[in-house]
Target: Carboxypeptidase Q
Amino acid sequence: LEAEPLPSLPHSHSFKHTTPLPRPSPHLRRQLLKRSAAQSPGQPGGPWKEAGPRARAPGCAPQTSNASQNPQAQEPPGRPEAAPAPRAAQPSRPAPRTPGPAPRLSARGAEGRAAGTRRREGARPRWGLAATARRLGREPGPAHRRVTAAARAARAGITAEVLVVTSFDELQRRAPEARGKIVVYNQPYTNYSSTVQYRVQGAVEAAKVGALASLIRSVASFSIYSPHTGVQEYQDGVPKIPTACITVEDAEMMSRMVSRGNRIVIQLKMGARSYPDADSFNTVAEITGSKYPEQVVLVSGHLDSWDVGQGAMDDGGGAFISWEALSLIKDLGLRPKRTLRLVLWTAEEQGGIGAFQYYQLHKANSSNYSLVMESDSGTFLPSGLQFTGSDKARAIMEEVMSLLKPINITQVFRAGEGTDINFWIQAGVPGASLLDDLHKYFSFHHSHGDTMTVMDPKQMNVAAALWAVVSYVVADMEEMLPRS
Model:
């Protein structure tokens, strides 16, 4: 609960309105006078009921850091609430009825119906707990804020003054000021690909100018006071300083405070740590092709997620529409000419480790892969398919997508890609990815909000239908997709 400094007001003051307030109708005035006459002198209540003081919201949030602000920089606890204007009593109304939940995809049913062979491919992901945090309200003194740790925990704590910057260029211009401080990046969100560089490289750039730690504004298109975590990198020869993601609201608050000339001191305590690598596995299932079993159309999503949230959106949805695509084709009794293979990747969030292992094992047969597909940008209502490939292959994909005119999803966009299929795309294999509402996706991405509540089963069914149609038709064509 942030309370910014406001101009002090005298004990008695008046407010002037630029436009006159509307007068009640004659009928309403008669009703109010009648009620007032019925009220005995001095009796509380009557037609007006004065609201009590507004209750303060309790502190909330489980997660790490202890941000202690300098007393000079402390935002005040807020001004007293003015008594609300009189309000006529309203008759009680019955609460609206809430419709029941819509039917969802049956994971167990899909698992029972799915056909194919499962293979295990080695990979090695493992990571530590994110930081934990407390929030203790808005009383004067240290203010506790929520962060998610990216790496290099500061267990003993670091206490230092803050330097707020909005870009790497500003950090370089103010490099002499950064030494011995905690750099806070308050970069504006433009799009994910251009903004995520601050999370990935923020600690490295801050360390180069002598900073003790870095805090990065969450890479999110929308925020409701929830930090968004993600992968970050260190560089050989550069000190590995602690770094963490903070909420958009806290980054903007600190930016406003320093713009007013306040000095902010943060005490940063984090509990994140890196563990030794451990074994993990990809999950593979397939429908063997009837005519060209050695040729493959691959559909995929990843099974791992960050330790915040549930990973329902990133990437449970992508994994299960890929599973459902094979399940639907099996239920319909269809068998395409080429092998239709499902791969559920492991360790995608750590840099596509499972996908890299799979590519190393199968790259010698890359000429037999007609199309690789990945869904890792949400499974909301699709707007089309992103595709990377030759012009001839694109023309074929446009014909395939025209089959989806009944559900009005026919567009083929450029730049099909995905962390797990980029290895194949770089080797010249055509690639496709699902495109949907990215603004909604990055509102919940890598945060506590990534739960089953975000998912809409009807929209997932549409995404699964698109995924099944495209994968089956390409796998059943007489020729493979042409390459450049």
